[in-house]
Amino acid sequence: MIPAYIMSAILGWRLYQLNTEDTPKKWGLRIAGYALTIIVLLIGWVLPMALPVFSLPEPRGPYSVGTSSIYVQTEQEEEITADPNDKRELLYKIWYPGDVDTKSIEHEPYVDTGSRAGFATKYGLPPTLLNYLDKVQTYVYPDIPVKETSFPVLIFSHGYGSKATGYYALLTELASQGYIIINMNHTYESLGVTLPDGRVHYFDYAYQQTIGADAMEVVGPIIDAFKNDLPYEERHPIVREAAKNYFEGRIQDRWANDMVTTLNLLEKWNTEGKFKHKLDLTRIGVFGHSVGGGAAGNVTLKDGRIKAAANLDGIQWGDKIDRNYSVPFLYVSADWPADHEDINAHIYKKKSTDYFYECTLLQSGHPNFMDIPFMIPIPSVAGTGAINPYLGMEIVTKLLTSFFDQHLKGDNSMSIQAVGEQYDLLKMLVHQGDSVRSPLDSMETTARSK
Predict the structure, then answer these.
(1) Looking at the structure, do residues 41 and 81 belong to the same domain, yes or no?
(2) Residue 447: inside a domain, yes or no?
(3) Residue (of 295, 282, 300, 281) closest to 356 by Cα position
(4) Domain for residue 450, yes or no?
(5) What residue numbers bound the domain in which 150 lies?
């Protein structure tokens, strides 16, 4: 914003000069000068408030956090592009517990150039406007040594059309607690991915329009069913039909296949390279946000290597509505308004033969699981809730850590119920082993506190 401040000073000085020359010819210039000064001052005031150099939460875990990238050219056909010869390309960002004193090491810049450019395009901004992100301090350090032990593995799937790596607060905290996280970047369906050779693949808006052409035709009956206040049992077959045909189900299938590809690569990564003998492949979890949360649930039904899974405010389309999980599952919802169509009340009618945790982060919005509330601290603009963004992220990361600690590490030192009892803004229901119990009949576990 320095140019804006310099321009303001120049304009102010010029207006002062014009005011000392009291001639009729100067009045037009004075009026134009005043108007231009107000515009420049507004830009200099509004932009730093809307897009500040923000502070990310400092991780609480015992480990420093490193990051590394792995590029994979698969043999799978790329169905999104028009070229039939294209093969699916995946770039992974790995977040891991480090073993180094980071005081003298430069932290990683916030978000790669491809994601920045994709974000700018999505909101009609010039990409250079996001150069200020270079000044955001992250708490991760590229390519530092991995701690000399093995860790449970978590695969993370981002939201549709979002920055795949726009979850620094969430992923940094979990990695600091002793997890190696495979950050998916679902090519052409994230805002952008910068490949090692410099190529950038952006979100494919044309493909989105094509696959979503029948969206309202499919979900219209659901909207009408909720709008007309049909009873749950009458609504259920309507939701079931749409759940199996909605286009996001095909996205989640594709992303689940990406994650199965990733699971198949873990054995190789664990025998060579940077992560040799660092991946505990007997303890693999998966989680995601929004469409990525639905995809995490989808792959949990597909692959028995996954031992625990979590969905952060995503609808899981497809055939989950007729099936139950066989592993512990955590579902965390934003605090949607009362008139919001609660589709997951039907999707998760069948829960799990193991534990199923059903939580709501009160006073939150859909983006509160991302870095968005830090990056854009105006709730009405960001679509976030009234919850303090740092408190909201603290609750979510503690909840996820306790869930995976309990069900992957066997560590019950901080149970999920204990996290629920710690915060007034976390509402929790715990279901155990009854996959056919309706939401209204579920066992309620007290989960309210300060």
Answers:
(1) no
(2) no
(3) 300
(4) no
(5) 64-441
- Note down pLDDT in tens along the chain; length 450 residues: 565 556 556 656 655 665 665 555 555 655 666 666 666 655 555 555 556 789 999 999 999 999 999 999 999 999 999 999 999 999 999 999 998 888 889 999 999 888 988 988 888 888 888 888 999 999 999 999 999 999 999 999 999 999 999 999 999 999 999 999 999 999 999 999 999 999 999 999 999 999 999 999 999 999 999 999 999 999 999 999 999 999 999 999 999 999 999 999 999 999 999 999 999 999 999 999 999 999 999 999 999 999 999 999 999 999 999 999 999 999 999 999 999 999 999 999 999 999 999 999 999 999 999 999 999 888 988 899 999 999 999 999 999 999 999 999 999 888 999 999 999 999 999 999 754 333 333 334 333 333
Is the pTM value of this prediction over 0.90?
Answer: no
What secondary structure does DSSP assign to 69-114, as a single string? EEEEEEEEE-SSSS-TT-EEEEEEEEEEEE-S--TTSPPPPSS-HH
Q: Same domain, yes or no, for 71 and 8?
A: no
Q: Is residue 57 part of a domain?
A: no
The number of residues making up the chain comes to 450
The whole-angstrom separation of Cα 7 and Cα 426 is 48
